Amino acid sequence: MKFKAFLTENGVSLLEKRFLPAFDKMGKHCHLLLTKEHLFFLHNLLNGDGVQCIAQFRKDVLFDDYRISSQNEDRIAFSLDIALLYRAVKSSVSICTEFSGGLASNRLQIKLVKKLPPNCTQPMPFLTFETKGYKSAVIQDVPISKPLSRSQVIELQTALDSAQDLPPTLVQVQDPNQLQNFVDHMRHVGDVLNVTISKHGDLQVQISTTLIRLGTEFQRLSVIGEKSQAPVEDRNLSAQARSERAIARGDAQSVQVSVKHFSKSLQCHLTKPDSAFYGIAPQGACLTVIFQFLVPGTRQTDKSISLHCRLPVLDPGSN
After folding, report:
1. What's the superkingdom here (predicted)?
2. pTM over 0.85
3. CATH topology of domain 2-163
């Protein structure tokens, strides 16, 4: 089992400034899955509780001279402490810059190794970062779990494949910060968020208690997938009445999610997406958020990077 590569300047920037800060906010641990063509960050994928978050990178977005081999179809997976990885990358970038006199041109190598830590009798696996200067080299080791077995990798891959299913209707929010502002202001009002998405391009987010009901609505959003025209007679109705009628017609779905989970999913804005798509899985199985990244200077989706979250829904009878 071998893995070795050099991080590109763009790869370092993506990890250090965008994706690792976001995953650091999501939780303490995550899985890394390395394949012949991609690297995945998988948060909470094998756990039905809490927010699941999946980031996928094509190898050439992050790496040069990418080499991987294993007896499991050249797939390697392990878990690690994301904060330790983030710290190692930041530190390595700082050392790279220092070695090169302010220009981060030194190559940063990343590889899997086994080492014998102090006071241990068994070698342990590490993800190692090596920065070479003119006269010296700095090595930083990030401890990782024992690499997953063949059956565990298959389990992880199966969970990943099922998590890629798209909701039938997705609505596009161009400025996700508006949702962030709403949740920041309302998180102390209640613990449960009602989210309604219609085929007309409406997204309603509402917090309600026995004493108060507060919400925000986005109308006429771009729709991907199943869509329909809103009836003319619904135009002058309240948001609540319109959503109830749309649900009754089968033109909308509504789910309840934890405010805490929704707020955590918004941490993905640290990755600087260009927009976000919201959708509800069939039978209201989960709330899915897909973040869109554009090729710089264009309106084309950057297909080399993907990021999405899946939020578990609450049982309406449990509130």
Report:
1. Eukaryota
2. yes
3. Proliferating Cell Nuclear Antigen (3.70.10)
